Amino acid sequence: MPPQKKRSFRRIVILGIISLAIALLTYFLITLITPTKNPSNPIAQTPKPETNIQSITPPIIQATPAIISATQKLLGHLAYKEAPLNSLETIAIATDGYQIKLRAAAAQKYKQMIADAQASNVDLMAISGFRSKEEQSQLFFEISRQRNQTAAQRAKVSAPSGYSEHHTGYAVDIGDRNAPSSILSPSFDRTDGFRWLQQNASKYSFELSFPQNNPQGVMYEPWHWRFVGDDDSLATFYKKTR
């Protein structure tokens, strides 16, 4: 073979060897870098498909109608049903002949409380007891117009119709006959009548509905008391506020 052809053949062989070496080196590097699907290697395992979100989301629990009705509010006042008229008893008669009434159990305890107060020379009087929704509506809107009050302002001192404790037949407004200027006024808490009630009303199952800084945001009403002396009255008030 001529020398020139030998050099050309040798060059081809060398280039072939170099190309083969580069190919083997490339394959070796790729093998090292690319992970194999080895079950013992968590990094190399095929990722699992995403979990169905709906299958792990807890169901939405709807509030029962009883819970919803127990927490209904309007301008800070809670909703109450009217007492059945046949459940009411007269506890006093106003000067215009209007009969002030409470439910039978509350009426009995109220009369006993008034008699015991009189025995202690404290002359308590009922100003208002049961009120129908119609009466409450007239009271709320008529006085708000007379006093040029907004609904929110009026609600501080009187509940809208359907939201008054007086509907229940368990609430009573009380005054001191010896302090007529304090009737339906915060100044009632400076009378002998109020001090007697503070010390003794709980013996007859009566409590103050709207003390100072009450959670409902209603104005302080030292004259407004409610009966909580049987199962129905207790549930009427405490299932709504506790």
What topology emerges from the helices and strands here?
Blueprint: H1 3-33, H2 53-56, H3 65-70, E1 73-74, E2 77-78, E3 88-93, E4 99-103, H4 104-119, E5 124-128, H5 133-146, H6 151-155, E6 171-176, H7 192-200, E7 206-210, E8 221-227, H8 231-241
Antiparallel strand pairs: 1-2, 3-4, 5-6, 6-8, 7-8
Output the keywords.
242 residues, alpha+beta, 2 domains, four-stranded antiparallel beta sheet, two-stranded antiparallel ribbon, 8 strands, 40% helix, 16% strand
Fraction of helical residues: 25-40%
CATH architecture of the largest domain: 2-Layer Sandwich
Ends distance: 112 Å
**What fraction of the residues are assigned to beta strands by DSSP?**
15-25%
- Strand arrangement in the largest pleated sheet: 5-6-8-7
Question: For this structure, what is the CATH class of the largest domain?
Answer: Alpha Beta
Instruction: Return the domain count.
Output: 2
Shape: rod-shaped
Structural class: alpha+beta
Number of E-state strands? 8
Total of helices: 8
Note the main sheet.
4 strands, antiparallel
